User: Fold these one by one.
Assistant:
Number 1:
Amino acid sequence: MINKKTKKDLFTLICVIIGALIMAVNIKTFVRAGNLFPGGFTGLTVMIQRIADEYFNVSVSYSFINITLNAVPAIIGYKTIGKRFTIYSCLMILLTGIFVDFLPSTPLTYDPLLIAVFGGIFNGVGIAFALRGKASSGGTDFIAVYLSDKLHAPAWNYVLGLNAVMLVVAGLLFDWNQALYSIIFQFVSTQVVGALHVRYKKVTVHIITSKPDDLSEKLMIYTHHGITRFEGHGCYSNQPRTLLYTVISTEELKEVIRFVHLVDDKAFINVMKTNSLEGRFYQEPIN
């Protein structure tokens, strides 16, 4: 019987491998075909490769540059975010580099707008896979995750601003068209990550139940979130009913609904999007 920790590590490993493969294929299929800079340390790596190639006529390994650049953020991530998160993020950096160095170049299109849009989508999906497994693609992702944990809100748009600065430099050194299309690429990627990564999004859950004592006690232990209880009367059933009110993260929602129905299979659940939240809120640690 596989224990919970082993399952968790296996799930993370699968997410990291899939994410690394998607990002590598994206680089060899879209990014290189459009001479784009995908943002973050991946984009900085590509930019350094192009500087070495065009200005010094030297071919430099993607893996070598990418691992070197990520060394400092990895150390910071290890100290501020956590050991497990950093180790798996480093594994993704390593795997992405290996895949990029060994996969053949297979461009699907040379249309810069198609490359910017679909390349951005693939890039965002690759990052989202890593984040789903509680890892990252490294570089500026360490910054985004750190800020998101501190702010309890998505910080990917802040990283988009940092990437825009790098892309301006790319425009000055190479070609403004490529740099501007790269900004589109990065914007699309950021929006995809924001849509798929729901860790910092909140929902309000209203549960009407006839088993309030049992459900509230078990649910608080299961989620570590506080619950407020309101007593009422069911107009249709003409029976006493209790409303349990709680706020959880969106990524917890499916499991919470499943758990509630295990305790009370007749519970009525209403879920509402939470746009803003003030006060204490338990966020499950990344590690």
Note: Residues 4-31 form the longest helix (28 residues).
Number 2:
Amino acid sequence: MQILPVQSGDIARLSALARDCFSETFGHLYPPSDLEAFLVKSYSAEALLADITDPSQYWRMVIDDAGHTAAYLHCGPVTLPFDEADGNRHGELKRIYVRASHQGLGLGKRLLETALNWMSRTYGDAPQWLGVWSGNDRAQAIYAGYGFEKVGEYKFAVGETLDDEFILRRLPG
């Protein structure tokens, strides 16, 4: 398994990977029209290209030994709706997804540690942030093991559906 930077030539693969991972993880929660609207808005090639060419964004994709996409990571300046979150000085782990076929191999942990290291290098000892679906107990337990604590809540739109999300913060150092 290799963790590689995402390049503009990887957009089609990243788009397919992101759509697949979100759908297999959360697709059952939404009406098909809401799911499709979200996938187009968040994971179309156009939306992703704008993000990966922004130097403030950090994208990595995992390629397995057979050359297939397995997982991805996205970090950048914090944009969570929380007063103490400073988009000029704090980083956010925006997405970690691992294909169901590749779960249980330690990829999520490797990507989380990669994200935390990037945020520490980029933002120093500033707070690190992430948003997580309120029903994702497994992810919340993993994040708690790395020192993240719940500090707030917000609504996350998937099409017309509004999910309850938790805002987590980690104080490194």
Note: The helical segments are 11-26, 32-43, 45-52, 107-123, 137-145.
Number 3:
Amino acid sequence: MDDYATKIKDSAEHLIRNEFPEKALELDTLCSSEALSFNEVSKIRAEVQLPTADDIIAHLTNNKNINSTDDHHHSISAKNNNNNGTKKSHKTDLIDNTIQSPVYVFNGTVPSNPLISILEDKLRPYILHFLDSVAVIKLWIQLMIPKVEDGNNFGVGVQEDSLAEVRTSETEVTQYIDLTCKYLISRGELIKKVVKYPHVEDYRRSVQSLDEKQFVSLRFIALELRNHYTSVHDILMKNLEKIKKPRSNQTHASLY
């Protein structure tokens, strides 16, 4: 168990000293890049490839021609098969009624917004890395907390405050995963509306607005992730010695 505790301590210090500042700088570069520039908003609002009112008209026209041909064939078939009985005639009537009630069927897949998907793929590794790293850092701080002794708990408050700060950051970053999931569900519901009512322009525009909103949210996530990496690194580095040796002196210790 001692070897495991040593491994956790070494891993946590490496994360704090090296990986966190590196990730913060990478995210700062990403936030300043063209991919997250507000100039990309016009591209985000690109028209979604979904059926339009013209598609419906073309479909109905084509269906009408098919119905006329089918009616002719059914008429000939009915004359040649009068001896099939009333059961056959009833079946033919059902087929005719079905053909004469055209329904638009959307064939193919509805793609996700490619630019949003690219940004999500770029940010997801940072979110997962942060959450995984924070789990190690929390355990490291807990391992550094000495046993409770009456009248000799100086410095432990710094460890507890540091742990609370890390947990707060963890809670906020966890919510970013839910944001992406909710966006996908909402977009899927809107896409269903567009497919069902392609002649209603507001549904089509609502998909574009939702994509734009998600782009702004992803930019916000990138900025906040950068800030979380930076703040956790800063607060733990400033209090590193107090976290590692909370009872090195008997003076009152407070969090920087």
Note: The longest helix spans residues 156-196.
Number 4:
Amino acid sequence: MSAPQAAASPTPLNIAQRSEQSAVILTVDGVLDAGNSGELRDSITKATFDEPFGVVVDVSGLEVPGEDAWSILLSARWQFETRPEVPIVLVCENRAAREAITRSGVARFMPVFPTDKGALKAVTKLTRRKVHRGEAKLPANLTSLRESRKLVREWLTSWSKPGLVPVALVVVNVFIENVLEHTNSDPVLRLEVDGPTATIAISDTSSAQAVRLASPPKGIDVSGLAIVDALSRAWGCVPTSSGKTVWAIIGPENQL
């Protein structure tokens, strides 16, 4: 009988860091896989710690096995420790890869450019925009439902976005309900308003990903995430070092 084979060790990534125009530039080479994705996520997160002008991640030399794998970059954006006010942008010389990044939804939060020059110019523009942010850690009990709705209403009203309140309340209620039903976590609520859109994000400590269930063959699909899908521009779930973050983007066209 042959000896059992040892589990393959994670493939190392080469991540080089330099500074340019007060921004941190990370250049990543290697093959992205499940074993080293955390290394990339943590490197991007740490690059925001000193609050640089921005973080530019050059992924031109990164080999990604499948289009969905690009979404690991979003986990750095939604890490609890990441400085949300520090813009993160991507550089990728390969046009097909840039298109894949865009299709994956990553570019919604991390714009992608073909050159460092374009990315640094974008960082300058992004740091000048006015983004409103609110964050709160809530208890792992039913009072979080009422408190999250109260906070979302107060924040959006104070930021002159009352038209987004009705849909935002539905979305945050679904997300908090899911955390309370499926985890033992204290949910962390984050709300960001950037121009006409708002992003609602809920983080928890469970690694189980939020997945929309298949629609029933007959009748109306009234599952929580089906409602979020119908009411938002986009939504998703990304793993983080402490669990996961579920997010949704809503705009003025999203109405009840």
Note: The beta strands are 14-20, 23-31, 55-63, 88-91, 112-113, 131-137, 188-194, 197-204, 234-240, 243-250.
